[in-house]
Structure formats: structure tokens, C-alpha cells
Design a protein that fits this description.
This protein is α/β, with parallel strands linked by helices. The protein has 16 helices and 16 strands. The longest helix is centred in the last third of the chain and has 21 residues.
């Protein structure tokens, strides 16, 4: 009787170990679409916790929640990694209007950029000068800029299919615009939102003053694309119009926060680490569902799917909820710093930070040899309409891990709607499709399975 029982339990294990890659991927996708926890996790992060600005109470609550949920997965280890992060608060709602004449005002929608200083208590009102970017600002010089508000109005390039490329083409005016304008005597900065559609929603985002002394820093805010167009038209008709805006944001000393980490220990090569992650912090206007609640729950779901399908990894699979990607990258830098200090051997890292939309594939930062090996798996993904395998780029939080031999990758969902929500008040749970979210998690899991099973190609050592 005992022999029969032993045989009964061994048979499924033998059967599972003989699964082909096609069968394993089919099992991963089927389980993701029928037994996933990702949407449930995101619901709680978005609707019960909300926006998770670095250093905030909500960020602290998100740390506790994700740690508790990973502990429920019966992983080999779940722990917190301390990291000091910036703390910035928005204050009361921003207010702005265009003054075209005495008593003639047009209200417009703005929001302070993350890290900006406040305006004077009564607000700031003066004439503007419109520019299309930092080069035009420099060409105008101090004579035309001093004492004015600089209005950066370069839009995202609409004819670029890769919307992240369009974003990269104009985000410098948001990030460095205030620091550069202050050099020429500007008193404030208004920046067109990084958004491809015309709407009423201003989009916040990180900005930096660089080495500018505190007493030289000027307030910076984003304006909605609809009101940016209105402002530009009114300036064209009357260059003497004035702009008034008020914001009460404040920068505080750094505070303690945490990266949240969970892992399954490798059965054959436990010292080879595969890291998957997203960033747990978000901006405060919405609830951060796409940026990057989706990436966090998809990363957690990788471990859940591996457990549900019974796959036992050869290598250590580690999930990291990085803190403070949005306005400092402290979590990603701390994780890499600790990994280097411990002499950890990271062979692969995958980040999801492009929204919870339909997955299209991956981008890779790796050697030609590794890219060739990975693209040979492309036919395995084609039944799931995953076709985008491109060399170049990965993710901000895993970037600090870059070194000889490691393969860095980023999940690449369809990006056409991403910047409708990015850093805006409509980055909320109802804009995430459950099935698309689950397909993204399955796609990540499938790649992690293949990397774990077959490994990566280490760089050839040069003989001395």
C-alpha cells in the first residue's frame, strides 16, 4: 500500500518535469488568466491605499501591505530593505489664471512639479515668455527672460510610434527647465504637460534644480495641454498678458522607507539571482495604478504563478518593490549598492514600469550573444501575440545593477494610451484592464521561466 502511494505522488512530478517549453508557457498563461491575484492586489493598492508619494503615510502603508501579501505566498524569504528617501508635499490645491486685461481672467489647470518650491504666499503674477525648449531659452538670454515666467510649450512628437521616445524628446524642459530659466533671471516656470492628447489634466513629474542654491530656486508647475494651447494663442494675440499661479508645496528632510523583497531560493544555483520588480511609490494626483502599481503586482504575480504551476526554479527568483523611483531612484540605487557590497551574482533583472496595458514584448540591455539566445525563444511567445524583442533599454530601478554579464530587460506593453494617464489624476484603477494586466504578468513569468531553465551567456574572459 505504501509503495502504491509513493508511486501515486511521484507520477505527477515526473510528468511535470517532462513538460515541453510550449506546454509550460501554456500552463503559465492559463493559470494567469484564471487564478491570478494581480488585479485583486492592485485593487487594494489603488482603492484602499491610493497615491503613494515617496515618504508619505500611504507609501508606508503600501510597504506593509505588499510585505504581508508576499508572506502569504509561502516564499523562502520576505524582508524589508531600509532606504532614506526624499519627502515632498503638494500642499493645498494649486490655482492659476491668465489675465488678459484689468478684471479679465481665464482660469487654467496646473499642478506643481515634484520637488518644486512654493510661490510667494499670495501667488506670483507677471508677464510670460514662450519657448519651445532649453536651446531657445539660451538663445533669448537674460535680457528677454529676466523678471518673467518662462512658458515651455514643446509638445510630445505626435508622429513617433514609440511614445516613450516622444516623451524622452521633450521631458528635459520639465526636469531641467526651472534650473535653466533661473540662470537667466526668470521668476517662475510653467511647462506643457507630457501628454499626447489635448485634455484638461495637468501631469506632474520630477524636476531638479541641480546645484542651484535654495535662495535662487523658482517655482515650477505643469499646465494641461488644452490650457497650454489656449495660453499660447492668447500670447500670440497679446504678448503683454500676465499669468498668475499659486502653490504651497514644500520639501522636508529625508525620511526612512523600504524596498520590499521576497524570494524563492534556487534549487541548483541559489547564488545566481534573477530579480523582477516595479516601483511601489507613485505620484499623488491619482492612485498610481498604471505607474507603477501594475508593475508591482505583476512582479509579485510572477512568484505566485511559479508556485501555482509547481515550477521549482533552479536559480533564486527575487521580487523587489522599489521605493522612490519617481523622484530620486533611491530604492534602485540602494538595492544595487547592497547587492554589490554582498558580492551577489545577479544574472538577470526584469522591470515592469510601462503600465498595465496589453504586453507586446521586451527590450533588452545585454550582449549580442545573450540577445541572440533570447530571440531564439521568440516563437514560443508568438501564440500569445508577443512579438517585440528589441535590444536597448530596460528599467530605471534595475539600471544600477548593470555590469558585465547581467541581462537587463523591460516589459513593453502597448504604449499608445500610457501618457494619457502618466503622472496625472486619471492614473486610477478603473483604467486598468484585468485581462491585459494578467497577460503582462504571464509574459514576464514566461521569460523568467526560460531564463531560469537555460541560463544566460556569461562574458568571455580575456586571458592575460
Amino acid at each position: 500500500m505504501k509503495k502504491l502511494l509513493v508511486a501515486f505522488w511521484i507520477l505527477p512530478i515526473i510528468s511535470f518535469s517532462q513538460m515541453s517549453d510550449e506546454e509550460q508557457l501554456e500552463q503559465i498563461y492559463k493559470t494567469a488568466l484564471t487564478e491570478s491575484k494581480a488585479y485583486e492586489w492592485l485593487d487594494h493598492l489603488s482603492n484602499q491605499i491610493g497615491g503613494r508619494l515617496s515618504g508619505s503615510l500611504n507609501a508606508e502603508r503600501a510597504v506593509a501591505y505588499t510585505k504581508a501579501e508576499m508572506e502569504k505566498l509561502s516564499l523562502d524569504r520576505v524582508y524589508l530593505q531600509p532606504v532614506m528617501v526624499p519627502k515632498w508635499t503638494r500642499g493645498i490645491a494649486e490655482y492659476a489664471f491668465i489675465e488678459s486685461g484689468p478684471g479679465l481672467t481665464t482660469p487654467v489647470n496646473i499642478c506643481a512639479l515634484g520637488g518644486s518650491v512654493a510661490t510667494p504666499a499670495g501667488g506670483l503674477k507677471t508677464e510670460l515668455i514662450e519657448v519651445q525648449g532649453l536651446d531657445e531659452l539660451a538663445a533669448l538670454g537674460k535680457e528677454k527672460i529676466e523678471g518673467r515666467i518662462v512658458f515651455y510649450n514643446r509638445p510630445m512628437q505626435a508622429d513617433v510610434i514609440n511614445t516613450f521616445e516622444a516623451y524622452g524628446g521633450c521631458v528635459d524642459q520639465r526636469y531641467s527647465g526651472a534650473a535653466e530659466a533661473a540662470k537667466y533671471g526668470a521668476v517662475g516656470v510653467i511647462v506643457r504637460s507630457m501628454n499626447l492628447r489635448i485634455d484638461d489634466l495637468p501631469h506632474t513629474g520630477s524636476m531638479s534644480y541641480g546645484e542651484l542654491p535654495i535662495n535662487k530656486r523658482i517655482p515650477a508647475a505643469a499646465i494641461s495641454t488644452k490650457h497650454a494651447d489656449i495660453l499660447s494663442t492668447m500670447l500670440e494675440l497679446n504678448p503683454k498678458i500676465k499669468f498668475h499661479f499659486r502653490q504651497t508645496c514644500k520639501v522636508y528632510p529625508d525620511v526612512l522607507s523600504y524596498n520590499v523583497i521576497g524570494e524563492i531560493k534556487g534549487s541548483e544555483f541559489p547564488n545566481e539571482i534573477i530579480t523582477i520588480g516595479g516601483h511601489l511609490d507613485s505620484w499623488d494626483l491619482g492612485d498610481g495604478s498604471h505607474d507603477d502599481g501594475a508593475g508591482c503586482v505583476q512582479s509579485m504575480e510572477v512568484l505566485h504563478l511559479l508556485k501555482k504551476t509547481g515550477y521549482k526554479p533552479k536559480r533564486t527568483i527575487r521580487v523587489v518593490m522599489f521605493m522612490n523611483e519617481e523622484n530620486g531612484l533611491r530604492g534602485g540605487n540602494k538595492y544595487a549598492e547592497v547587492a554589490k557590497a554582498k558580492g551577489e551574482n545577479h544574472v538577470f533583472a526584469l522591470e515592469s514600469d510601462s503600465g498595465g496595458f496589453t504586453p507586446r514584448g521586451f527590450s533588452f540591455d545585454c550582449s549580442d550573444e545573450n540577445f541572440e539566445k533570447i530571440t531564439a525563444w521568440k516563437p514560443l511567445f508568438e501564440p500569445y501575440l508577443i512579438h517585440y524583442f528589441k535590444k536597448g533599454g530596460s528599467g530605471a530601478d534595475i539600471g544600477p545593477l548593470k555590469g558585465d554579464g547581467i541581462v537587463l530587460a523591460g516589459l513593453r506593453p502597448d504604449s499608445q494610451r500610457y501618457f494619457d494617464h502618466h503622472h496625472a489624476a486619471n492614473d486610477t484603477f478603473e483604467h486598468v484592464n484585468k485581462r491585459e494586466l494578467e497577460l503582462g504578468a504571464a509574459t514576464m513569468t514566461a521569460l523568467v521561466y526560460l531564463i531560469d531553465k537555460y541560463g544566460t551567456m556569461l562574458p568571455k574572459k580575456i586571458k592575460g
